[in-house]
Amino acid sequence: MLFQCDVNVREVRRQRMIGSEEFIPSTVWIKKENNYYLCLKNSIYPNGKTYSISLVKMDPIFFSLLKSGRIAFEFRKPRDLLSLEFKSKRMAYLLYRTMQDITDGKNVIIDKNQNPDALHANNAVIDNFDLNANEFKGVDSFDNRILNMKCLSTLVLEDCNSLVLPEEIGHLPIKSLNISGSEMPTSQHAQDIYWNWTSKPTISGTLTTLKMDTIRLMKLPFEILYLKNLQTLSLNNNALAYLPHFIGELKNIKNLFAADNMLPYIPLCSSLIHLTEMDVIHNRFYCKEPRDHLVTYKESIKEPTDFKSLKHIAFFKLMDNFPQLKRQDISRPLWEYFNYVGRCSKCKQWTLPDYGETTSISFMPTIPKLNMSKYLDGLTYQIMYCTNTKDCEAHKRRFS
Ligand SMILES: [Zn+2]
To answer: Which key words tag this protein in UniProt (predicted)?
Structure first.
């Protein structure tokens, strides 16, 4: 893969850095011969400059810049500090992950056909609309002509500025949607209606792959649940502090990618234990005292009022029936409950922390392809159960 970015190369001599501070538009790529190499080409190095990746210092401080689309690599020989600035945060993340995987000793497959001369074709914009095409790759923003592509099955909208997905895309039989690297709208209204497309019967039946890497996602939208046939969900490099328990309702999920977030645990649901592939590297499973979002919610609960109980009853009814409603059709005070609702591990009824307890266990799941920190013995799973055993028993009897 080729990366276009602005690069500054400075020589490190003892603790000092020598050279211009200027960033030069450059092409960067990784090649594999006997080892992996990071290659750079720009107006200063027209013949290219090559660094052995085995000599890179992966300094975590440099990676804290990543969320703003910047990376820095320091090499031991030649002793250079490379600073890279990307327009696309997604590409910055891709390069960082590739470098990290190589230094971790993983076998990274590098496309041999890549070379900087191929760049032009790679970046070509598909602008001649073919209404019968089944694949579309967009740039910059959503183009409303997409809505007329009735056979569309793959829609790629990477690195778009302030991407708004119109509700009508839900009428297209899309199987794979990729919005990685795109900017989410900032206005409250645009955010409220952002996921409305998921409520349409067509796409909720056809979509099997949803990629949302590097979009600064802070919470998983509950509308994901409308996508009943979802098999691959990619949430890498976001700002997720937890995965809500409702994710366990995705019964067809096979591949879950949630690397580079802030997850301290995974909700214990059978669908997440029987995955084919999971990537949860670079999260917060090592935290000794993780911030448990369910406990934090519970601590903030004041005495329940009748009004609040009514809201809870309405919410549990909604969860049991789960009509494909747009977010605005559900009363706003109920929205936040989606983040805290989960099934009791004993009676399998929906519960909220108001009526439940949580606990956690650690174990190594038997997932064939699992990418996690090699320093961990297992993953931490979070479990919910009813506080009131009488209610729980009653539920069990009623449903057994
Ligand atoms: Zn229960």
So the answer is: Leucine-rich repeat, Repeat
What is the mean pLDDT of the segment spanning 264-283? 94
Determine how β-strand 80-85 pairs with β-strand 70-75: antiparallel
d(CA 166, CA 89): 24
Q: Tokens 């006997």 sit at which residue?
A: 34
CA angle 172, 176, 177 (to 5 degrees): 80
Tokens (6 digits) for 30: 């990784």
Q: What SS3 state is found at 107?
A: coil
Q: Which amino acid is at 26?
A: S
Give counts: helices (H), strands (E), the chain. 10, 21
Q: CA dist 307 to 298, 303, 304, Å?
A: 18, 11, 8
Ligand 1 midpoint to CA 350 (Å): 8
Check if the beta carbon of residue 252 is closer than 8 Å to that of residue 275: no
SS3 299: helix
Q: Ligand 1 center to residue 347 CA distance, Å?
A: 4
Q: What is the amino acid identity at position 256?
A: L
Listed residue (24, 240, 3, 242) closest to 116, CA to CA: 3
Residues contacting 150, CB < 8 A, separation 6+: 131, 172, 173
pLDDT digits (tens, 9 = 90+) for 187-226: 999 999 999 999 999 999 999 999 999 999 999 999 999 9
Task: Kindly list the protein residues that place their beta carbon closer than 5 angstroms to ligand 1, a single-atom ion.
Answer: 344, 346-347, 386, 392
